[in-house]
Each structure stands twice: as C-alpha cells, then as structure tokens.
Design goal:
It is found in: Periplasm. By secondary structure, this protein is α/β, with parallel strands linked by helices. It has helices at about 5-20, 55-65, 75-80, 95-110, 120, 135, 230-235; strands at about 25-30, 70, 120-130, 145-150, 175-180, 185-190, 210-215, 240.
C-alpha cells in the first residue's frame, strides 16, 4: 500500500479544485481499474484467503470524498458488465468497457444526457492487434486477440494541437491535442493516459461541448502528478475528467504539477505525504 503517495494524489486534486473553483471548473476523478480489481472471478483460488481492509483505490476515493471532489468507482461499473472486459494480450480494457466507463463519468459529472448508446456504438467482437503480454508472458504466437468494434460517427473535427496545451508527455503517442465540436458549449479537458487517449475524446456526440482536450496526466509514461497545471489553467476548462489508471495514479517522490501552489510551506521528504 503506497499510502503516502495516494494521499499526495488526493491533496493534489483537492488543491486543483480549490484553485479552479472560482472560475467554475468542476473536476471528476475516474480511475480506470486494473483487471485484477474487476475480474475477481478470474483470480486464483488462494486470493480468497487474502483480506485487504482497504486498497489504494479505496483510499483515494475516501480521501477525494473528504476533499469534496466528485468521483466514480469504475470497478463497480465494470464488475456489473459482462465479460470480456479486458483484452487478453494487453493490460487495457476493451472498447465496450471504455464506453461503459465513459457513460458512468458523464453521469457523475451531472450530464447524463451526454451519455452514448452502447447498443449503437459497440459492435461485434473482431480480431484485433495483439499486445505486449503475448511476448512478456511467452504466450504461444498463435494466441488471438479480440476487441469490440466501435461504430463511431465523429461529430468533432480531427485532433489538433492547441497553444494552451504546450507541454507534452515524453512519449510521441501521448501529445496533448484537442477536438473541436461546436462554436459554443462547454470546454472539457480529459487528463488521462492510454486508457482514454484514443476513444473518450470522440464520444461527446451528444454533449453540449465546444472543444474537448486530452492531455497525459504525467510528463512521463509511468509517472503521475508532474504535468503542467499552467496548461490546465490556460485551457480554461468547464469540466476536468482526471482518469489516470489505477497502477499509476499515486504521486511518486516529490512530484507536483508545475504551476500548482503547494498547500504546505515546509519541504516534504520523498514519498511522504504532506
């Protein structure tokens, strides 16, 4: 349990909300869960003997509630859905789980009318590119991957760079981009990772939004909390969806967003929460 790192994450989001509240920005935290947190029926039998009184996910939700930050427990959302929920040869959720999670976030944000219809959007399973787990776990090379086909009719323009989001993740695939939807409407900023980068910015077809931005929640692929808060402020979002995946959301070391005031004045040792 990385308690201090989780508490640092909670403090960070709470401070973000305090700074942005005067301009009317709302923050919703939705942590994409690890497969092991959802597919409990697939875990080995010996895990039934383990008794974790609280997990990092639980601790984060409790802390964010105390900070007055809106959250949605995506573990419960996905557990209520049928299998398959995750890819076989990759650590990511599949397209259907992504859509179900998006709808849950829209409800938590107070915009149930922005949800999409999974029956129309999620198609049949089809063969998909295989992931890194195939090689890492030495699976037979003939193992097939399947994913649900997404039937999206884009209402937005193609992604473009925005001068407000000038800082980018170190990985070329995670550049900060925006999609224009309409001349007027709310401004949405998704702060996430590979779980949300491709699909979520395209799902606002039913939403009263003008632009949807996406930025990685870290300057590093495997980090967190070291993004540019200056970019966030320049973008002037009405809604922030913070969706860093479960295994990476705790703040490491002395990581803190650039431009976000620290709520403490003394130096904080590495891996110790304020």
């Amino acid at each position: 349990m990385r308690t201090a790192n989780v508490e640092r994450f909670v403090t960070m989001v709470g401070e973000m909300q305090r700074v942005l509240a005067p301009q009317g920005t709302r923050i919703v935290v939705a942590i994409p869960p690890n497969a092991q947190s959802v597919e409990l029926e697939a875990l080995p039998a010996w895990t039934d003997a383990l008794a974790y009184p609280v997990t990092e996910y639980d601790l984060a939700l409790q802390g964010l509630k105390a900070e007055g930050v809106a959250t949605v427990d995506l573990r419960a959302v996905l557990r209520a859905s049928p299998r398959p929920r995750y890819l076989l040869t990759d650590t990511h959720w599949n397209n259907r789980s992504s859509v179900l999670a998006f709808n849950a976030v829209m409800a938590a944000a107070g915009h149930p009318g922005w949800q999409v219809d999974p029956a129309q959007l999620v198609g049949e399973l089809h063969e998909a590119p295989r992931g890194d787990l195939l090689r890492a776990m030495r699976m037979p090379p003939d193992v097939k991957e399947e994913n649900f086909r997404l039937q999206i009719t884009d209402r937005s323009a193609k992604p473009r760079f925005d001068p407000a989001l000038s800082h980018h993740n170190e990985h070329i695939a995670f550049k900060s981009v925006v999609r224009d939807y309409a001349p007027t409407g709310q401004r949405v900023l998704i702060m996430g990772d590979s779980f949300t980068a491709v699909t979520w910015p395209r799902l606002f077809a039913n939403a009263d939004v003008s632009v949807v931005g996406w930025m990685h929640a870290s300057a590093r692929v495997t980090g967190n909390c070291d993004f540019s808060f200056d970019d966030v402020r320049r973008f002037k979002p009405d809604l922030i969806i913070f969706a860093r995946t479960e295994r990476f959301f705790p703040c490491y070391g002395d990581d803190w967003p650039k431009g976000l005031p620290r709520p403490w004045t003394r130096a904080v040792p590495l891996n110790v929460a304020p």
